[in-house]
Design brief:
- The protein is of the alpha/beta class and 371 residues long.
- The chain has two domains: 3-276, NADP-dependent oxidoreductase domain (TIM Barrel), CATH 3.20.20.100; 287-368, no CATH class.
- The protein has helices at residues 7-10, 28-40, 55-62, 92-107, 123-130, 135-144, 159-168, 187-195, 216-224, 230-240, 254-265, 271-284, 286-289, 307-320, 323-331, 346-350, 357-368, and strands at 3-5, 13-15, 17-20, 45-47, 72-77, 112-117, 148-154, 174-178, 199-203, 246-250.
- The longest helix has 16 residues, at 92-107.
- It is globular and about 60 Å long.
């Protein structure tokens, strides 16, 4: 695979597609073999976490016999997941410094190339990370000891927050974003980070599997731009964006590795192909289609119906053709389904789009409800 600079700050070079550690096989030997297959096939950057169950243990097994020297290894921890009792009377920095030792032990390595603050999703998370005695201070202690070589953070924060944080983050060497053909809101933040020499990583390149779900709409768009499948279209669309340094794909089976690499090697799209995808994205954008934008002004619902989630299911079905995905997502909701709606109309009074929400909830109950 082609390699490129992983931002100017880290001084690494990285392949365009790499290994996400959240969806590895349960069997330890199977997972280790899969990881080695990915590395042998050209994937070098590894993203794992203390919060991914036994993911770190699976990588420990795979990275023996010289494989550690072939990879760029990254793990992480979330500051917001730390409970007061975890601190043992000390600071967050003390806890993270101890936790890094634990994670190095789990991975059976002497150092990690990257240690990231995981899921910095709002201003409170950012402040918790940055304050004196906070998470970043603990990471820097480990960096001073040579146990961590580089750092950064992962995020699902608002675009507005990111465009404030990124210019201030002179310490961050990489940032991991969600970004794909269905969800393009972070494009300005990715461009901002890339322009400041920060390595940019994209997770969920196929929407957490959504873009691999059956959809005549997506398949038609893929065929229009000469892609073999919707997932291949999604990956080629990402690597065409010069602000995206690399993507990480969750791997469960060898075909996940092989198909991702094949998509990368099919190459970026031409300007004409990208224009065709952009025209479709613009046409089905919620604002252009006159549909729910997820602003949440309709909430809270007196009956605790999760209106934005249900409207998102309808949107994915109606405009992207993801009927099966939308049905599974709706049926998987443990609370907040449309059955609880009593047609009180409060949501419609608050909706800035003047949508017929009660009618849409009845539609969801009828179409996606379990018989």
């Amino acid at each position: 695979m082609e390699e490129r600079d992983f931002g100017e700050r880290s001084r690494f070079r990285v392949p365009r597609a790499n290994i996400g550690g959240m969806r590895l096989p349960e069997d330890m030997d199977e997972a280790a073999a899969l990881i080695r297959h990915a590395i042998d096939s050209g994937m070098r950057y590894i993203d794992t976490s203390r919060g991914y169950g036994d993911s770190e243990l699976r990588f420990a097994k795979a990275l023996k016999d010289g494989y550690r020297d072939k990879v760029i290894l990254s793990t992480k921890h979330a500051p917001w997941s730390v409970k007061p009792e975890d601190l043992e009377g000390g600071t967050m920095a003390d806890f993270i410094r101890r936790e890094i030792d634990v994670q190095l032990g789990r991975l059976e390595v002497d150092y990690v190339d990257f240690y990231q603050a995981w899921s910095i999703n709002n201003q409170e998370h950012y402040d918790t990370m940055m304050k004196k005695g906070g998470m970043l201070e603990g990471i820097r202690r480990a960096m001073d000891e040579g146990l961590v070589r580089h750092t950064g953070f992962t995020t699902h924060a608002s675009l507005e927050d990111l465009l404030v944080w990124i210019p201030q983050a002179d310490w961050a060497e990489v940032i991991l974003f969600t970004y794909n053909v269905l969800n393009t809101k972070y494009a300005p933040a990715i461009a901002c980070a890339h322009g400041r020499g920060i390595g940019t990583i994209v997770m969920n390149p196929v929407g957490g599997g959504k873009l691999a779900a059956p959809s005549p709409v997506l398949m038609g768009l893929a065929q229009q731009v000469g892609a073999a499948s919707a997932p291949q279209m999604a990956i080629r669309w990402l690597i065409t964006n010069d602000h995206v340094d690399t993507i990480i794909s969750g791997i469960t089976r060898p075909s996940d590795v092989d198909d991702t690499i094949a998509a990368v090697e099919a190459g970026p799209f031409s300007g004409e192909q990208m224009a065709a995808i952009k025209a479709f994205q613009d046409k089905v954008a919620p604002e252009e289609a006159g549909f729910c934008t997820g602003c949440r002004y309709c909430m809270p619902c007196p009956q605790e119906v999760n209106i934005p989630a249900i409207m998102s299911c309808i949107y994915e079905d109606r405009y992207w053709g993801l009927t099966e995905w939308a049905t599974k997502r709706y049926q998987g909701m443990k609370t907040g389904k449309a059955d609880a709606c009593v047609q009180c109309g409060e949501c419609e009074e608050k909706c800035t789009q003047d949508l017929e929400i009660m009618k849409e909830l009845a539609y969801a109950r009828e179409k996606y409800g379990e018989s």
